[in-house]
Amino acid sequence: MKEISLGSSVYELVTAHPEIQHVLFDLGLKDIQTPGMLTTVGRYMTIPKGAKMKKVDLQVIIDQLEQLGFTIKE
Questions:
Q1: CA terminus-to-terminus distance, the chain
Q2: Is CATH 3.55.10.10 the right assignment for the domain spanning 2-73?
Q3: CA-CA-CA-CA dihedral for 39, 44, 47, 51, to nearest 10
Q4: Which sign does the torsion angle of CA 4, 72, 5, 55 carry?
Q5: Residue ranges of the DUF1858 domain (predicted)?
Q6: Domains of the chain: which residue ranges?
Q7: 36-74 burial, b if ≥16 CB within 10 A, otherwise e?
Q8: Which of 15, 16, 11 is nearest to 29 (CA)?
Q9: Continuous segment of H or E residues that includes residue 22
Q10: Share of residues in the chain with pLDDT > 90 (%)
């Protein structure tokens, strides 16, 4: 299983596991695919911060990532 930390930046997570980008986009974090956003804002944005900003239930994101075989470290 692949382990990811919710304290890591979105940029770090997507760089290590590109498939995460599609999951986050599909769950409502649409800005992740806007050109330049991942390399700028993504460097300090975490999944919990992004979920709160976009009013997406963090548990839904965690559940989806776990279904894809990720172990979540909080």
A1: 16
A2: no
A3: -100
A4: positive
A5: 5-60
A6: 2-73
A7: ebbeebbeebbbeebbeeeebeeeebbeebeeeebeeee
A8: 11
A9: helix 19-26
A10: 95
- In this prediction, residue 1 has a pLDDT band, given cuts at 50, 70 and 90, of confident
Looking at residue 72, its amino acid is: I
Residue 18 is which amino acid? Answer: P
The per-residue pLDDT for 16 is: 96
CA distance 67 to 37: 26
If you search the block for the tokens 């695919």, which residue do you land on?
33
d(CA 17, CA 15): 6
In eight-state DSSP terms, residue 41 is: G
Q: For residue 38, give Cα distances in angstroms to 1, 32, 44, 46, 52.
A: 25, 6, 10, 11, 17
